[in-house]
Amino acid sequence: MKVRVREIPERIFSYGVMLFTFLISIFPLVWVVVSSFKTNKEILSNPFSIPKTLDFQVYSDVFTQYNFLSYFKNSLIVAVTATLIAVFIYSLAGYIFGKFDFRGKNFLFVLCTITLLVPGYSRAQPIFALINKLGLYNTKTGLILVYTSFGMALALFILRLSFASIPRDFDEAAIIDGAGFWRIFWNVNLPLAKSGMVTAGVLMFIQAWNEYFYALVLTADEANRTLPVAVQFFNEAFSYNYTRLFAALTLVILPGIIIYLLVQEQVQNSVASSGVKG
Amino acid sequence: MKNKWVKLWIAAFLAPTIAVLCLFYLIPILTVLVTGFTDWNGMSKPVFVGFDNYVKLISYDNTFLISMKNLFLWSLIAATAHVGFGTLVAFVLYKKRFGWRLVRGAFMIPMVISSAAWAMIYNLIFNDEYGLINNGVRKLGFGNFHVSWFYESPAAFFAITLTWLFYAVYVTLIVYNDLMAIPKEVHEAALLDGASEWQVTRFINIPLVKNAIATGIILSVTARIAGFEEVALTSRGGPGNDTYNITLMLYDGIVNYQHGYANSAATIMILLGMLVMVIINRAFKMNERTY
Amino acid sequence: MKKSYKIASVLSLCFLLILTACGGNKNNSGSQSSPSATPSASGSASPSASASTPAEKVVLKIPHYKAGANVGAKFFLPQIDRFNKKYEGQYEIQIEEVPDDKYRDKIKLLWQQKKLPALVESGDREFIEQLIKNGEIYDLKPWLDTKPDLQKVFIEDSVKFNTQDGHIYTMPLAVTRPTGIYFNKEMFQKAGITKPISQMTFEEFDQACEALKKAGFTPLSLMTGENGWTTMLLGTAFLAGQPGGADVLKDTAITYDYTSPMWVSTFTEIQKWLQKYSSPNAIGAKYADAANAFLNEKAAMIANGPWMVGDFSDTTKAPAGFDQKVGFSLSPGGVGIDNVQGYSWWIPNGLSQGETDAALAFMEFRMTPEELKQWMIAEGGFAPNLPASDEVNSKVSPILGEFNKQSTTDLKVLVKAMQDVWPNQIGQSEFGRYLALLAKGSVTPEQFAKQLTQKAQQFKK
């Protein structure tokens, strides 16, 4: 019993932190969604009020004005493809950085990771030139390439740590079994680095999903427009009508959250299983 | 003979990453570094001007000084409060109290929203007329509370800070990942020796996630150096140049056809980032295996 | 050791080639008809139709901001449809929507890649002047010389501005659309104001504001957010009445120094308006907020151009019947604000003959009397050299009709907006940024003038 009493302040504290974290993460979004069901007048007179009716008319209005489904599809294709390619190639490199030594390794790693410090805007012009030279202007492939490059530093950070924390005993056992380089990587190390890969993958997906600037400059027509770019049109389009503005924001935010909630299960499982492994 | 094959494999594994590095980073960065020393409007041929751009950038008026002051304060807040909060959440989640999955899931949600949408939401939240903050304060009895958050001093600085201060889920994820990787036996042995929970946290867990915390600090401080949206889409550096930062100076260069000037700002950003990396690496003695 | 690097670099090259190959394939299968997506060796946007196959239709893909929900789309898109219909089977223009404030950046980026669309509307001054210097803009003069009817409708000032060494690179304007002040007639009546704004002096304007305040209304819908548009327009009208002000505002040169008395007294006036005659949330207000305040009858006046007139009868934006309450007037002192000395539509060099012809056809189409009339009916303005404006006046919204009539009698001086004589950096960001400080009283008008001056000089060439 004594232990329990001693635990009480700690519990209050823990739950306090959890509640606070939950609220700051959810409340702004709940507010946006709730506001989308209120009239302009209700929004302006009392931001805390609860909508009187649940009217979805505004959503169908906004939906007919903009082709959200197509934007959603584009965002999804671009982000998923870029993430898959990126996780694969950075796993290859992360494996090397985590487990092998060669001259210039640290230099190369630092070179890769300081790229994090180069702001996207400053590289825009050379990258735009590159995409054009490859003939990829206004294609999803161009965007995929650019997004593949985005997560490099972060992915290498995470993946190097993941691979480094896999005991070398496994590799040595595999070598004795006569496994080649590729098999040691693919069959032994890769499964054990899954949690890191998922973490890196989720982060890269999110980055690609939300990227705005390059999506704006590298695509021309609506056929390749992604969701974040659509946001840019809202200020003009809905500025007089807060109900619509909130509804449009909801439509942009929601797919990302839904996808995340689906992947979330996967993230939790893999993180949990890596814990068992440890 | 065998060694040679390994080298080949290493090269093959690194190749795609090196290709990305060269195409999307090194060549663009080199362009940036070189043109930082030129007068270049982005259209005509660049003309070498030595350090002119740097002199102008740093000493033209107090904007650079203010940018550095803001960067310093924001970095400090990021390295302490921001990373501290993320780490705290990781430790709390690690206890797996009732509802921890829900909280972790929720904490991630702001990250899946694009910064363009997020800035718009925060503009709405801080709006004087119908925003949550001001109406909330007015509801609490301060009927005359009117602060145009992003447009007066010093409110703008704090309002911008609030748009990212608590959203430290990246740090939480990295630290949590490392916590999970600590072998169970270590804890069991410590608890058997009569260590209290606090002692386990203080003397075992914190040292073992040191690398993760350092990574978190690097990530969040560099995010401040390269941060653009949280300022450009809210206060735009105002009022006056109160919340200016170096990315805005870079942006000013671009919109005024002074790509050389812009790229000198970009160069300073890169140098600052490297400095941060070196300092944190030294301070935390990273790259040393802790167990 | 060195070997591994060599191998790595060889492999990365292979990787690159694969990427390139993939990209090429995707591109071929991905776009069938769009001419701008087809990469070409020369770099210029290669058309799907060339001069050798005249039977084929020329398709121009034009990025533009007057699309979607933009206020200008209401007229522009149907105009494109009419053009496409007239030249059916010969030319077709397709519009790609670009957000208003991203249009110029987009054009710049396209230019850097030599992928300029066949038709561009305006752009940053420095940009266009550089392009002219580089010889990258199509000279319209020889073509215009074959179209005397077209030349007749142009405004002389605009022709003068657009002519450089005998060449004409951007299309001169035929229509001027001065901005003025929209006012809420009901509020004016309740406050007992009878004198038309255009006949007031700024002292009388002040008294009118006081009267409105006494009657319980916020007199002015001002803003400090974005580029401070509505505030800037009202300030321009004041400056035009200051000694020397109109000359500065009529000059084609850019002004970099704002420390002279006329500027300082303008900034003083602006500070007074912001502090006394507008609501506290003007600080940080964006254009939409300012417009909203007027449309929802929370402010009595807003400075803006004729293109806003459609908003008053739009019930998603304003209460029903609001358009009945609105009047439109020139600014105090009979000031009209418009920039006819600006760059408008232009065509890049290096297009195929078919594309150039299509682009020219559109330039001409826009300037046909029928189209000009329709435009003025939709968005206001008047064409000094186009006969039969009465027809326009009878069809145009009564608000604009009145304004056009007033313009013929009360217009004392027509100037450019302050924004048009400032360098880009001041007009687009610094003015709004420092305006918040001016409104709060954190800086004096003198300090404000000094800071803007210093900022203006920073990027001066």
TrEMBL record, chain A:
It is found in: Cell membrane. The chain crosses the membrane at residues 12-34, 76-95, 107-124, 144-163, 184-209, 245-263. The keyword Transport applies. The keyword Phosphoprotein does not apply. One of its GO terms (biological process) is transmembrane transport. InterPro entries: MetI-like, MetI-like_sf. Pfam families: BPD_transp_1 (PF00528). It is a multi-pass membrane protein. Residues 72-263 form the ABC transmembrane type-1 domain. Keywords: Cell membrane, Membrane, Transmembrane, Transmembrane helix, Transport. GO terms for cellular component: plasma membrane. Belongs to the binding-protein-dependent transport system permease family. This is Carbohydrate ABC transporter permease. It comes from Cohnella pontilimi.
UniProtKB/TrEMBL annotation, chain C:
PROSITE patterns: PROKAR_LIPOPROTEIN. Residues 29-51 have a biased composition (Low complexity). Residues 1-23 form the signal peptide. It comes from the Bacteria. Keywords: Signal. InterPro entries: Bact_solute-bd_prot1, SBP. SUPFAM superfamilies: Periplasmic binding protein-like II. The keyword Signal applies. Residues 28-51 are annotated as: Disordered. This is Extracellular solute-binding protein.
